[in-house]
Specification:
The protein is of the alpha/beta class and 264 residues long. It has ten helices and seven strands. Strand 6 and strand 7 (255-262) form a beta hairpin. The N and C termini lie far apart (68 Å).
Amino acid sequence: MPDWMLWAAYSVLVLLAGTALFFFTVTHGALLWRRAVGGSPHESAHVYPIYSNLRLMRLVDYQPVIAAILLFQYDRLVSAITSGLRQSSLRGERVLITSCAFGNVIPRVTAAALEAGARRVQIADIILNELTHAKSKLSEFPNQVEFLQTNATAMDLPDGSVAANVIFFLLHELPHDLKSRALREAGRVLAPGGKLYLAEFHRPDPWVLRALSWTYFKVFEPWGLALWDTHDPLTQLDGLGDFTCQRRTVFFGNFQVIVATKGL
């Protein structure tokens, strides 16, 4: 093998190892460090630095990077949500996005909601820097978006105040008890007949992909594996007793989009 090919292969391995180390450091590694030093508990203690440090957000939040993390299914997942919003009757209603997310999901969801007639889109997140970062993507909607610094598990919103609620890849980052609380809160703020759109990871069908996903969660997202069984969001929503749910899985079952309609 020529020397240049060896160097190229070595460079690729170093790049991949460095990328993996970086993401571990700003996700699971940070949680382990906080636990080791015995940091004082607070309501945002579970949030990774990559979602709270503005410099890190700006470093990582590029559409090709985010698409690659979701195995290039990002556009497909967002489109499933925006298509549902556009087909809904939202005239004069409020639409909520619970927790900010990287990529272009927030501007796309906002545009779809407003096209469907919504009078206001509310974006809620526990981290102020997340709201600041999201605001930088929404300059074309200066008077139609409201930013709320509030906890997804105890939001400062009235009961039944929104006609649609979008939760995009939040649950896998929450400790297990907070997963259930976030879903209950999502149902509380949703008006009768309103829809919850939830995109998340799902248990893959092929064993090879399942093994790779299991490894990914164990290394980077330790709370994500519970979505496969004990904290399946569809099961939890069914348990609330007030939702009619439909689930669609994509990419060999690796991802899911749940549309849950609240009873009248």
